[in-house]
Fold this sequence. Notes:
The protein is mainly alpha-helical. The protein has helices at residues 2-30, 32-45, 55-71, 84-103, 108-134, 138-152, 155-166. It is globular. One of its GO terms (molecular function) is DNA binding. It comes from Glossina palpalis gambiensis.
Amino acid sequence: MLKRMCFLSVIYQLTTWLCLREYCIEILSSAYNTLVRQVRRVLERNVGTNNHDDSFLLWAVRFFLEFNRLSDMKLELVSESLSVQCFHWVLTRMEHDMDMIVSDKKQARLWAKRLHVALQTFRELLHSLVALQKLKDNNAQALFDMLVNNVCYVLEYRETILHLLMNYNEAHSTK
């Protein structure tokens, strides 16, 4: 009886996993690029107000980039995220969160959590960049060359990680 229950549990987990996988593929193929573009526009328009939290979009970008990279890396599904504008947007979010940790001492823990989400997104962008290099497609190679020239050779992108390490404070930052 116990073996049968374990077997059924595994079957239900596998079925759930396959349904979630198909759901993520459907989101990537039908709505992801448009969603990221529109939400980023709204967030950039409301940058002066304090009533929005962009960490939800950062999380979604990280999740779907990682999902796409680990499944079969289709460039056209995440083209909105693999752009210089997206790298720049994530970098500016990280810089903003670092500045807010210093200036808003009461909410430093909140800003550190947001910075952590932005840093995870930046890491996934870099992982996707490496995966892009391994693709044998000419469009992927051209995009890789363009992103490397506009991201990896720009001083502010390279110094951001160093700045994060130098200003790490374990009192309010995540480990």
